[in-house]
Design goal:
The chain has about 140 residues and is mainly α. It has one domain. The protein has six helices and no strands. Helix 4 packs parallel to helix 6 and helix 5 crosses helix 6. The protein is elongated and about 85 Å long. The structure holds protoporphyrin IX containing FE. Protoporphyrin IX containing FE (HEM) binds next to helix 5 and helix 6.
Length: about 140
């Protein structure tokens, strides 16, 4: 009992006291961002939403104006080709020693062309999947 009281009354070591004061003064570390917040910040969800809207518009246009069907398909094929090459070129450029702002810009452009390309590629695959399956 006496020993416990004596221990509690002992002043903290100066080093530990200084550390505790520094910790109390330091600003709180920012909470780690969720994956969704990260995707939103990089406009990935927004690009998918725009691509989904473009897909819906082109589907309706193909049905209402069959004479534009070829041009619409060609546009999607060019979008796929250009986004793929843009994304690949930017990815390789990211391997070069670049200054921070340029790297940041190329990184964002790589993500944006990559996201658009992923959508265009999936849409392309969905349209052509029947031709890739064994004939029945
Ligand atoms: C066209 C095919 C692609 C190629 C050839 C490619 C190439 C590369 C290369 C070489 C890097 C390394 C850059 C570095 O280490 O600094 C990189 C990084 C990265 N790529 Fe791609 N990429 C491709 C597609 C994509 C796609 C579709 C996405 C997703 C939208 C993507 C997302 C990323 C991310 C997030 C990083 C950075 C990783 C990190 O922080 O180190 N890439 N890419």
């Amino acid at each position: 009992m006496l020993a416990t009281a004596g221990f509690a009354a002992e002043p903290a070591a100066p080093m530990a006291q200084a550390q505790a004061q520094t910790a109390a003064r330091a600003p709180a570390a920012p909470a780690p961002k969720s994956a969704a917040a990260h995707f939103l910040e990089l406009y990935i969800f927004q690009i998918f939403a725009v691509m989904a809207a473009l897909t819906a518009v082109s589907k309706v246009a193909e049905r209402r104006k069959p004479e534009y069907c070829c041009s619409i398909r060609k546009t999607w094929n060019w979008a796929l080709l250009l986004s793929f090459f843009g994304c690949a070129a930017l990815g390789f450029l990211l391997l070069l020693p670049l200054d921070k702002p340029t790297k940041n810009l190329f990184f964002r452009l790589h993500i944006w062309t990559g996201t658009a390309g992923v959508w265009a590629g999936l849409y392309h695959a969905a349209r052509h999947i029947r031709a890739m399956l064994p004939a029945r």
